[in-house]
Amino acid sequence: MRRGVRTAVAFGPLVLHAIDLSGVSGRRPRLCHIGTAMGDQRAWQAELDDAARSAGIELVHLPLFPMPPTDDLRGMLLEQDAVWVGGGSVANLLALWRLHGLDAALADAWRAGVVLGGVSAGSICWHVGGTTDSFGPDLRAVTDGLGLLAYGNGVHYDSEERRRPLLQRLVADGTLPTSYATDDGVGLVYRDTEMVEAVTEVKGKGAYVIERVTAGEQTGGAPVRETRIEPRLL
């Protein structure tokens, strides 16, 4: 998200790219926002409603507080072109999604071709896990992601200095599998379960793949190899 011209916020290139990936044409795109990770803040939903009207997007929210908006979460999601999940507590997000069956509904929507995306917690959730401050100021591993993508995920790689070394340690000791990480403003594009491209809103930012290596492959004794992926500027 970014500051709007006539609205408080506007959808940035990453959100718009997720919608483009759905291939929708000839009508207003349908986008579902899920804000579980920050407690479904109504004020934020209102700001997004303004942004959607300005961009010509048909936006719906899927809150879980105080209750889900429908008994048919799967049906609601299948009507969307794309889903965008906001940041916050990935641990709380995953617990509530499973409590309400939203995890299974999202998996069904993904298999049906709905584009799933998000930022921070909304990125980690689709993976096996990643690094999180959900439990307190000291970063910890989260390893119970939805696992639609069989990789770890590192967010805020350039803006929070403890993220990079922790993710590398988690890959090195096998807590997380091979992981993809992103600087702020960078997105990962998967087709099915294969990472095919990194894209960015900000020139000069990067994406990375972190892989565990064997003793014979180690450079300088490092148990992991980090390779930069140059993103395409949107």
CATH architecture of the largest domain: 3-Layer(aba) Sandwich
Helix/strand/pairing category: alpha/beta
The first-to-last residue Cα distance is 14 Å
Q: How are helices and strands ordered from N to C?
A: HEHEHEHHEHEEEHEEEEEE
Tell me, rounded to a whole number, the average pLDDT: 95
Per DSSP E runs of 2 or more residues, the count of β-strands stands at 13
Q: What can you see in these coordinates?
A:
With 234 residues, the protein is α/β, with parallel strands linked by helices. The protein has 2 domains: 1-119, Rossmann fold (3-Layer(aba) Sandwich), CATH 3.40.50; 126-234, no CATH class. The chain is 27% helix and 25% strand. The chain has helices spanning 13-21, 42-55, 73-78, 90-100, 102-111, 121-124, 163-172, and strands spanning 30-34, 58-61, 82-85, 115-118, 129-132, 140-142, 152-154, 179-182, 186-191, 194-200, 207-212, 224-229, 232-233. A 6-stranded mixed β-sheet has the order 6-5-7-8-11-12. The chain has a 4-stranded parallel β-sheet with strand order 2-1-3-4, with helices on both faces. Strands 9-10-13 form a 3-stranded mixed β-sheet, with no helix packed on it. The longest helix has 14 residues, at 42-55. The mean pLDDT is 95.
